[in-house]
């Protein structure tokens, strides 16, 4: 049994018109593995995470099934409370999302340890310091007594990771954990997350728009577009031979240092659709280089082949990108 | 959402979808029309004494639908006149505070620095003066008239507006589109009038709709104290003051102008709330 | 030979009003460089290194604390405000956040046409709109979007409009301040390609600011690297990428995300940035530098020109004339 099992998850937002942010998504996260959801803004990737944790906005409704360690999270009275007890940690894009600005970092970490693990305050203080060292925050003892704003962006993100890990979660949700950071610091946080997952035997569901972040970290990748997963595969396979034209386009769009000067960057034409836009056929069809008449008519089903799957009538063959 | 068309039209459509705000607007319109044309259509003047019907309750005497007061003056006519005076003063004072407050605040907020500090200290000093005291001095010097009252209220009304606008302008000034306008060669005057003021109009309009009932209350309060509108002129304030004296024997004399005031204040507040939601430039 | 734009010792300081004492933050520290006519010069560095401030200082959106700015051989940092306004026609800016750089209460085409009001007062409204429409067409923005409001368009579309507005006065230099970092990955390339095409067709000079060395390297012949307010290396792209001389440039190069198709490759770990607020006696990079020696902490390395035209601010640069090799994980 997988650690996290998402089946047929759909998220709708009520409003002047109904917006479907996540559309019948299936996803598995195995124990001690890292799954990355890659998608652009408006693809529904963040809403998917929020729906799993019951943190959707007031006008959002989730249906389907999300089972964590065999326990159904959707439709319970207060999923947020259950998760806290049941071992899912959360790291946000903006570290201030998980750290309170007006309390010392040590106090926040210790309190999280006390409430999640039921240890004494004294033990929790020691644990807080150990955890800050573990996230490679230099001079951990000094930072315990500091407030979040006294740290730099990268250090704050480490402290936020420590706060998420101190409850010893089995699964970590990471929502664009490096997007707000500089490239140099990004590299550091990625390798930190990878090491921590391995050392602590923790699984991770990572959400990002950046293939560069994913390539060093994920075991499996699910590419999301306009509320649906369009391709899901083992990471090395997807990075080397993307099957969906959208995955291929996103990969090609990452600028590299090896291109000769003056070469045009590979791009995907057009812009991502508005959330809830009504697209009858394949959602990517208006932007797809390989689209044919058939793509316009009907949304392609998600066809699975073993663990991998793809929603495309005419997936790319090897060497075609 | 809608492809083209002005932001104001979008805002209007959103407002039209808000039932409470629409009802409030309709009631306000009705009250304004009644205040303007009502007294012309009725048989009595506001200071006309009907010796045959003194202090009659509503719906008992022919022609006096809402009864009369101690002196036999028609209460409906007097309430409508009071509404006219109170609303007139409130609208004018709000306009004055809009004009001064918006330009004062926008200039201070945009220029920042020393100019801003100086301009806002002026506001602080005026804030520190007790308004009632100021009104009393004005009435002593210039006599009691609606004009004096208007000046007295207007002189204070713009202070809060200026502070709100300055805060907004300070925030707007940091926005990139203002920098973009500077790079595009626009001068201070154009930036303030074309970029700063239009973008803070939303909160300003909302605050203005909330200022109107506030001013009506201040006017009523001053008239109630006897330093506002004077007999035989009617205002909602002095009608309530007169009615309060008769509260136990002739409750309608209090209830008629008081409910009119309550209705007015409620409607303006609901309308203000509706406008705040409707003018939010984002779509949802 | 003096170039189109020349900066000499430009320094920008901000006053920080703290809780107790007044402090100063040196955002740009003694920056000097020359930009040739028609050249596209890249400027890279981490956030907070002062690269945006430097771009804004050229356009006089922030005041200089010291130094000189020369435009076509003429000193412009001391011009009075009125005189400088005439120059704005030649110096334009493309902003980072396309959602914030257009007035939300104006339609896209009105915003694009606005600079014409100042510089071509003879034009009628219809003529201004026509000029703006022609330019929107050139940057590839569909004409049906032109009379929408900013909140009705996407980031990539707005950035095209932002570029059109920068171009409408036909400037000679455009400062591009992180023009793609707020955009979706699939759209970033469109904007980069658009900027490259415009520059080619119009022969514009440009200062292209970004935190991503890969984006800069694809566009610019020459790249400037900035660290904590100081320019640490200026070199042509062709030599900078294979053989960086400054250890910080090496670090930036190593941090560029690479998509490894084969085995997992760990990105290189780097030390943390230090407090940009604390005054630095020696080299600003000393605290993070793997090649640091005692001299680096006490003596500030000047930006020195080498015979091959490259400039680098490092005491030890002479020790690795062939450039620093990539760090191994």
Task: Please provide a written account of the structure.
The complex is a heterotrimer of chains A (321), B (284) and C (329). Chain A has 321 residues and is α/β, with parallel strands linked by helices. Chain A has helices at 45-53, 79-86, 105-117, 121-134, 140-144, 153-165, 183-200, 211-214, 235-240, 245-253, 293-297, and strands at residues 4-13, 19-29, 34-38, 60-68, 71-72, 88-91, 171-175, 203-208, 220-225, 228-234, 303-305, 308-310. Chain A contains eleven helices and twelve strands. In chain A, strand 1 and strand 2 (19-29) form a beta hairpin. Chain B has 284 residues and is mainly alpha-helical. Chain B contains ten helices and no strands. Chain B is elongated, with a radius of gyration of 22 Å. Chain C is built from ten helices and twelve strands. In chain C, helix 3 packs parallel to helix 5 (155-167). Chain C is globular. Chains A and C meet through helix 6, helix 7, helix 8, helix 9 and helix 10 of A and helix 5, helix 6, helix 7 and helix 9 of C.
SSE diagram, text form:
The complex is a heterotrimer of chains A (321), B (284) and C (329).
Chain A: E1 4-13, E2 19-29, E3 34-38, H1 45-53, E4 60-68, E5 71-72, H2 79-86, E6 88-91, H3 105-117, H4 121-134, H5 140-144, H6 153-165, E7 171-175, H7 183-200, E8 203-208, H8 211-214, E9 220-225, E10 228-234, H9 235-240, H10 245-253, H11 293-297, E11 303-305, E12 308-310
Parallel strand pairs in A: 3-8, 3-9, 6-7, 7-8
Antiparallel strand pairs in A: 1-2, 1-4, 4-5, 9-10, 10-12, 11-12
Helix pairs in contact in A: 3-4, 3-6, 4-6, 6-7
Chain B: H1 7-16, H2 19-41, H3 75-111, H4 113-128, H5 131-142, H6 146-173, H7 176-183, H8 188-225, H9 236-245, H10 252-279
Helix pairs in contact in B: 1-10, 2-3, 2-10, 3-4, 3-6, 3-8, 3-9, 3-10, 4-6, 5-6, 6-8, 7-8, 8-9, 8-10, 9-10
Chain C: E1 5-17, E2 22-35, E3 40-44, H1 51-58, E4 66-71, E5 74-75, H2 81-87, E6 91-94, H3 108-119, H4 125-138, H5 155-167, E7 173-177, H6 185-202, E8 205-210, H7 213-219, E9 222-227, E10 230-236, H8 237-240, H9 247-255, H10 294-298, E11 304-305, E12 311-312
Parallel strand pairs in C: 3-8, 3-9, 6-7, 7-8
Antiparallel strand pairs in C: 1-2, 1-4, 4-5, 9-10, 10-12, 11-12
Helix pairs in contact in C: 3-4, 3-5, 4-5, 5-6
């Amino acid at each position: 049994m997988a650690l996290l099992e998402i089946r047929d998850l759909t998220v709708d937002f009520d409003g002047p018109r109904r917006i479907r942010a996540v559309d019948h998504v299936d996803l598995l996260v195995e124990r001690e593995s890292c799954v990355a959801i890659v998608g652009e803004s408006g693809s529904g990737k963040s809403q998917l995470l929020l729906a799993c944790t019951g943190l959707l906005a007031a006008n959002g409704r989730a249906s389907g099934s999300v089972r964590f360690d065999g326990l159904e999270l959707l439709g319970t009275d207060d999923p947020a409370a259950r998760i806290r007890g049941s071992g899912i940690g959360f790291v946000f894009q903006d570290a201030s999302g998980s750290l309170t600005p007006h309390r010392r970092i040590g106090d926040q970490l210790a309190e999280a340890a006390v409430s999640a693990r039921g240890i004494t305050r004294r033990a929790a203080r020691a644990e807080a310091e150990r955890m800050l060292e573990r996230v490679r925050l230099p001079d951990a003892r000094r930072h315990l007594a500091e407030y979040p704003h006294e740290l730099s962006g990268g250090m704050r993100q480490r402290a936020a990771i420590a706060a998420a890990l101190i409850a010893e979660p089995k699964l970590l949700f990471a929502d664009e954990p490096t997007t707000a950071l500089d490239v140099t610091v990004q590299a550091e946080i990625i390798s930190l997350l990878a090491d921590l997952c391995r050392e602590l035997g923790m699984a991770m569901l990572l959400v990002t728009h950046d293939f560069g972040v994913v390539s060093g970290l994920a075991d499996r990748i699910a590419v999301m577009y306009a509320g649906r997963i369009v391709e899901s595969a083992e990471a090395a396979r997807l990075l080397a031979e993307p099957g969906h034209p959208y995955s291929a386009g996103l990969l090609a769009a990452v600028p590299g240092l090896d291109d000769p000067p003056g070469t045009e960057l590979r791009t995907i034409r057009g812009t991502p659709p508005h959330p809830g836009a009504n697209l009858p056929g394949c959602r990517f069809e208006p932007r797809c280089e390989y689209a044919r008449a058939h793509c316009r008519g009907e949304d392609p089903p998600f066809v699975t082949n073993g663990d991998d799957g793809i929603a495309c009538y005419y997936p790319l063959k090897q060497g075609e990108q | 959402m809608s492809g083209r068309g002005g932001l104001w039209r979008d805002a209007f459509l959103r407002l039209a979808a808000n039932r409470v705000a629409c009802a409030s607007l309709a009631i306000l319109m009705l009250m304004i029309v009644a205040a303007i044309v009502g007294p012309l259509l009725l048989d009595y003047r506001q200071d006309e004494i009907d010796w045959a019907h003194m202090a009659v309750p509503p719906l008992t005497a022919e022609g006096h639908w809402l009864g009369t007061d101690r002196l036999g003056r028609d209460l409906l006519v007097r309430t409508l006149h009071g509404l006219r005076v109170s609303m007139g003063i409130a609208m004018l004072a709000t306009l004055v505070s809009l004009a001064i407050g918006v330009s004062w605040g926008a200039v201070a907020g945009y220029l920042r620095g020393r100019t801003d500090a100086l301009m806002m200290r002026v506001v602080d000093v005026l804030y520190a003066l007790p308004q009632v005291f100021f009104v009393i001095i004005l009435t002593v010097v210039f006599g009691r008239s609606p004009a004096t009252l208007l000046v007295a209220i207007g002189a204070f009304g713009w202070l809060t507006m200026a502070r709100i606008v300055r805060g907004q302008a300070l925030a707007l000034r940091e926005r990139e589109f203002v920098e973009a306008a500077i790079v595009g060669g626009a001068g201070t005057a154009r930036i303030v009038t074309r970029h700063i003021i239009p973008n803070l109009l939303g909160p300003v309009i909302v605050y203005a709709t909330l200022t109107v009932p506030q001013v009506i209350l201040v006017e009523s309060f001053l008239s109630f104290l006897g330093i506002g509108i004077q007999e035989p002129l009617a205002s909602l304030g002095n009608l309530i003051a007169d009615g309060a004296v008769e509260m136990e024997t002739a409750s309608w004399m209090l209830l008629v102008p008081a409910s009119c005031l309550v209705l007015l204040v409620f409607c303006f507040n609901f309308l203000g709330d509706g406008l705040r939601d409707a003018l939010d430039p984002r779509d949802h | 030979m003096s170039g189109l734009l020349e900066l000499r010792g430009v320094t920008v300081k901000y006053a920080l009003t703290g809780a107790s004492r007044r402090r100063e933050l040196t955002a740009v520290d003694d920056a000097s460089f020359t930009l040739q006519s028609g050249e596209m010069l890249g400027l890279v560095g981490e956030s907070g290194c002062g690269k945006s401030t430097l771009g804004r200082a050229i356009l006089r959106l922030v005041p200089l604390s010291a130094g000189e700015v020369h435009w076509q051989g003429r000193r412009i940092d001391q011009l009075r405000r009125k005189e400088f306004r005439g120059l704005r026609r030649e110096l334009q800016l493309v902003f980072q956040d396309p959602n914030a750089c257009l007035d939300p209460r104006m339609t896209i085409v009105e915003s694009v046409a606005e600079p014409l009001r100042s510089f071509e007062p003879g034009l009628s409204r219809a003529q201004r709109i026509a000029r703006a429409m022609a330019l929107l067409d050139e940057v590839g923005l569909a004409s049906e979007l032109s009379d929408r409001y900013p909140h009705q368009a996407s980031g990539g579309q707005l950035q095209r409009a932002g570029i059109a507005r920068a171009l409408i006065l036909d400037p000679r230099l455009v400062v591009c301040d992180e023009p793609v970092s707020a955009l979706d990955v699939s759209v970033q390339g469109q904007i980069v390609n658009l900027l490259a095409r415009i520059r080619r067709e119009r022969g514009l000079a440009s200062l292209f600011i970004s935190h991503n060395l890969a984006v800069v390297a694809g566009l610019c012949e020459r790249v400037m690297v900035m660290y904590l307010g100081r320019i640490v290396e200026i070199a042509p792209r062709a030599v900078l990428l294979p053989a960086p001389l400054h250890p910080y440039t090496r670090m930036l190069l190593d941090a560029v995300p690479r998509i490894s198709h084969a085995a997992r490759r760990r990105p290189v770990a780097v030390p943390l940035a230090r407090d940009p607020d604390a005054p630095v006696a020696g080299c600003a990079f000393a605290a993070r530098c793997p090649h640091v020696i005692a001299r680096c902490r006490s003596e500030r390395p000047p930006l020195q020109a080498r015979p091959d035209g490259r400039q680098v601010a490092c005491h030890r640069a002479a020790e690795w004339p062939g450039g620093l090799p990539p760090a191994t994980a």
